[in-house]
Amino acid sequence: GSSTIRGLAYSTSNKLLYVGTTSSKLGHYNSSNGSLSSLTATDVGNWLGNSANNIEYMTYDHNNKLVFLVGMVGIFGFHNISTLVTHNLTATDTGNWIGLTDLENVVYTRYNKLTFKDYVYVSGWLGKFGRFNLSANVTDDLRGTDSGNWWGTTNIFGLAYDPNQEIVYVGGGAGKFGG
Asked: What does each C-alpha distance from 117 to 9, 82, 131, 158, 175 come to in angstroms?
């Protein structure tokens, strides 16, 4: 059957559009020949194949050629374009702070152009906000950086990165917005 497309990420390196859907289907679309190919079987341990949940959002890391994806019940991982393998990152979540919370957004960043620190920020329901450090292979809970707890448990649906100022902006429920 057909699934609803929820996440998209375009790879400039291989000129493919990566697609994430309901029922955790993963694939890519090749615009040069009009073909859509499934990548669902590329996930190590079938962690996506065992899920009836949605891939909600995806982002492309052009420096490392990775497509990061997040979704319902704590889905968090990446597809390696070079090896054609999709990896589960839920075990990198120190203290299991994400747990089974729905993740709604993901954004790739490269901080400090001199030292090239690659991070992937994730956000979701109940004010979940964290950062995956590619070099350390750890996803840290950043909710403690919310001075005064002004965000609290408000859902975070939007993330955007400004590379010039090296700021990640967040947006969510109740009209909340910050950076």
From this structure: 21, 21, 12, 22, 31
Low-confidence ranges of the chain (pLDDT < 70): 1, 50-52, 113-114
pTM of the model: 0.91
Nearest to 23 by CA among 44, 40, 10, 35: 40
**How many CB atoms within 10 Å of residue 54?**
22
Handedness of CA 168, 136, 75, 113 (dihedral sign): positive
Long-range contacts of 150-153 (CB under 8 A, 24+ apart): 150/176, 150/178, 151/127, 151/176, 151/178, 152/127, 153/126, 153/127
Phi-psi region of 93 (alpha: psi -120 to 50; beta: other; left: phi over 0): beta
List of residues 6+ apart from 90 with CB closer than 8 A: 47, 74, 75, 76, 77, 98
